[in-house]
Design a protein that fits this description.
single chain; 216 residues; alpha+beta; 8 helices; 36% helix
């Protein structure tokens, strides 16, 4: 697929990161919903089967976002946001293509999210640090996520309380393709003061829940 080969030039903008002594290169798609990672030789196209598999992920994500954003939220009378946990979780459960592998509760200092560069955020959420080239999509994700969380906190609806971000991770490491999914979410009731009026908040941390899945 030519679309994936075209990413090769963009991969070169990333600085190699060491994982098991292999240089791994990362690339976010424009919306920050897909993270590609590879240690593949950058001047060679990936195998067609791998490109096809990752292309299916892109198509599935597009379909999921369309379903979410064209479905009315019964609690607001408006269309769901693509950062609404309740809508995303229903799609995951009903699709039959996601196998849950773990659930974690991560603690993120407020200073990490308050930093313009979001220093350390990807280290906490993903387990590794991304180069600065990825800051634009990360900023966009955090801003959209925060807007949905603040809306929910202000609405104070007990049936619509979690903001979320879904991330597909397409890996081609050591000649083996793998697709996994991570769903990050927060309970906005726990963070209402931070979201609505930071000056009145006594909390200095965010509790972010991370559900991990294998995509089949």
């Amino acid at each position: 697929m030519t679309w994936f080969r075209s990413l090769i030039n963009l991969f070169t903008r990333s600085k190699p990161t060491q994982r098991n002594e292999l240089p791994v290169h990362y690339f976010f798609n424009a919306t920050g919903h897909i993270l590609f990672s590879t240690c593949h030789t950058l001047d060679q196209p990936v195998p067609q089967s791998v490109a096809d598999q990752f292309s299916q992920v892109s198509a599935l994500l597009g379909g999921m976002m369309k379903v979410v954003t064209t479905t009315l939220n019964p609690h607001t009378g408006q269309y769901y946001s693509p950062f609404n946990y309740h809508a995303l979780n229903q799609l995951i459960e009903r699709s039959g293509r996601f196998i849950k592998t773990s659930h974690e509760v991560l603690t993120v200092p407020n200073s990490t999210l308050a930093s313009p560069q979001y220093l350390g955020l990807t280290e906490v959420l993903l387990g590794f640090t991304l180069p600065d080239v990825h800051l634009p999509p990360i900023r966009s994700i955090v801003s959209s996520f925060a807007n949905e969380a603040k809306r929910m906190a202000l609405a104070d609806n007990e049936n619509d309380i979690r903001a979320a971000h879904i991330l597909f991770i397409c890996e081609y490491i050591g000649g083996i393709p793998l697709v996994s999914v991570q769903l990050f979410s927060i309970d906005n009731r726990l963070h209402k003061a931070l979201l609505v009026d930071k000056a009145k908040s006594t909390s200095q941390v965010w509790q972010i829940e991370k559900d991990s899945y294998l995509f089949t």
